[in-house]
Amino acid sequence: MAKSIRPLNDRILVQRIEAEQKTAGGILIPDNAKEKPAEGKVLAVGSGKILEDGSRRALEVKVGDRILFGKWSGTEVKIDGVEQLLLKEEEVLAIMEN
């Protein structure tokens, strides 16, 4: 049975999108030489950031968005054997648009 995860507050759950396995010239990149991808797909979002006055600000990112984030951002978690990433919204650098 798959687990259902709901991030709290301004956190989001992200699945990394793997980078190309080849260079532009067609050279294959071995696994140990690849960097962690800094691009991902948003799987779940929290209910929003709690402001100083107690109100809640909705997140700009939504489920299904493709985002860019810092290489060392977030906390890696393994859910049902799949590595995913929990980030705060402030760690998101950009939302990729079509």
Protein model, in words:
- It is a single chain.
- The protein has 98 residues and is mostly beta strands.
- The protein has a single domain (11-19, 36-96), classed as GroES chaperonin (10 Kd Chaperonin, Protein Cpn10, Chain O, Roll), CATH 2.30.33.40.
- The chain has no helices and eight strands.
- The protein has strands at residues 11-16, 39-45, 49-50, 56-57, 66-69, 75-79, 82-88, 92-96.
- It has a six-stranded antiparallel β-sheet, with no helix packed on it. A two-stranded antiparallel ribbon has the order 3-4.
- The N and C termini lie far apart (34 Å).
- The model has no long low-confidence stretch (mean pLDDT 83).
Question: What's a quick, concise take on this entry?
Answer:
The protein is mostly beta strands. It is 0% helix and 39% strand.
